[in-house]
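Table S2 (continued). Query chain:
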Amino acid sequence: MPPESTVTIRTRQCRPFLLRVMVFSPESGYKFIIEVQKACAANNEEVWKLLFNLLKKIDGQFVEIINVEFIAGDPDEIDRVAAITDEGLTRPQVRAFRDQVFPLTKPIGDEAREPTPQEQQVIATAMKSAVMA
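Corresponding output:
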């Protein structure tokens, strides 16, 4: 008889984290912070997010005026967001955040209001474009 062996099978453990990738000053009195977050769903699935936080200098201190969360959905988006944790943002991605996302979010943050559904859609498209740049 062959000897018995026992094999322990572990479920894959999702480990969440938040990584600040970049701080950029697109113009005087403003800066934005790009962060990558890996969250874990109830079923232990990884959820990859890219966070765009816009800050404005008010009374000598930078204060967050708007934040946008992009949740990667398809495999290409997931790969791009995950790659940022290893490689950082690419030059085209930085340009896209500066030239596309910042100008869309700045007026909303300056006015301290919620974006309209149409603005949310335009910003979501710009975020996806920046991630995929």
